[in-house]
Amino acid sequence: LPLPTLPYEYAALEPHIDEATMRVHHLSHHQTYTDKLNKALSALRADPEQKHLAKMGIDTLLQHLPEVSDASIRKAVQNAGGGYVNHAFFFASMSPDGGGALEGEGLAAELDKAFGSFTRFKQSFTLASLELFGSGWVWLVYERRSEAPLHITSTPNQDTPAMTPGVVPLLGIDLWEHAYYLKHQSRRKDYVEAFWEVIDWLEVARRFEAA
Ligand code: MN
Fold first, then answer.
1. How many Å lie between the centroid of ligand 1 and the Cα of residue 158?
2. How far does the centroid of ligand 1 lie from the alpha carbon of residue 135, in Å?
3. Amino acid 101: pLDDT
4. Per residue in 106-165, pLDDT tens?
5. Residues whose CB is under 5 A from ligand 1 (ion)?
6. How far is CA 31 from CA 1, 37, 88, 107, 158, in A?
7. Is the pTM above the cut of 0.90?
8. Cα–Cα distance for residue pair 35/39, rounded to 1 Å
9. 196 Cα: distance to centroid of ligand 1 (angstroms)
């Protein structure tokens, strides 16, 4: 698998997300997840009894982790495969034309129903992001066949909520220190506030409609 291309220039999210962070995040971190995933997929392909797993596509493979028999390959698929899909998802969640609030029908109305208002959703998502302990992600997900289909959740490391069949991530914030330390050091709150300025709500709403 190739490193997914960034849908905008490295400096496009300035001043909210800085160019230096975007470069190291994409060219180093996302590249490393891609390389390690490719290595794990090669190892699966080399095993006649496991090679069918390498063919199912990384999103599906992440839902079939227990079928990977070798523990170290399984861990590599989980960590690097999760990092691969999460970063492609994360970078595509931001846009130089992003920010603001979601309005109108569809997802905006569902967020109002689930959280009371867009402002309260934003408060809850921000609070969850500030409280997450260790490296991981905070997500807005849509869970099919749930009485409260829209909710906020978190995952450790590079786990994705989509590892659970029926759970569709709509928005996710990378809360690994590499996502913000270069510019904000320990001020995670500044990073979370900057993220709100670049969220591509059209993309998030499109994910909701598809779910
Ligand atoms: Mn990251």
1. 9
2. 9
3. 87
4. 999 999 999 999 999 999 999 999 999 999 999 999 999 888 899 999 999 999 999 999
5. 174, 176, 179
6. 10, 10, 11, 32, 14
7. yes
8. 6
9. 17
